[in-house]
Amino acid sequence: MGFDLEYNSERSTLIIPEYGRHVQKLVNHCVALEDEQEREKMANAIIDVMGNLQPHLRDVPDFKHKLWDQLFIMSKFELKVESPYEKLTIEEVNAKPERLDYPKSASKYKFYGNNIQTMIDVALSWEEGELRDALILNIANHMKKCYLNWNKDTVEDGVIFNHLNELSKGVIDLRKSEIELVLSSTLLRKSNSGRMNASQTKNNNNNRNNGRKHNNNHKNRK
Predict the structure, then answer these.
(1) Residue 174 class from Cβ within 10 Å (0-12 exposed, 13-18 middle, 19+ buried)?
(2) Is 2 left (phi over 0), alpha (psi -120 to 50) or beta?
(3) What is the mean pLDDT of residues 81-103?
(4) Which of 31, 100, 107, 113 is buried most deeply by CB count within 10 Å?
């Protein structure tokens, strides 16, 4: 009795490795079917199999649409069946993504994080009033905390106000105000406290695990 062994060197490269070689073979077989109804029936069966193999995608919008797109990609766009969705084209797959233009002012102050510009834009979209003022103050304090986490011992409020003015394109101007941000020492203490609590929690968990191992070893010796 002989076996038809398939060596790695003889195997074709998987187009979407997540689905495995068996699904790719099903797709290839489906492409080769001459009967239109059989192709359509098998294509829908393959979609069901792919859906079961990727359950985490069920929460993704247009879940089935994505599966059909992947099916056509795996067939190298040679599968001739009607899709319930607009067909993906090979040109769309090969198209290079558009380059994202990052705000120049935001990239200048990377230590504030990627979301600071979004927070500022939200504040600018609100009507003037107490809520907007409170949000701006929170943003300024958040910026000060980020600045201090950037290996700095202290920073003057004026520096933060200058950066906030620049990032808001001159709309938010606290430079001549009497507003005082949270003290640097307080922000640093809170930050260090958070790190210490996280470290202490990790140590406590390690001690518990070591205790369990010790008890288990003691029981085993008995």
Answers:
(1) buried
(2) beta
(3) 74
(4) 31
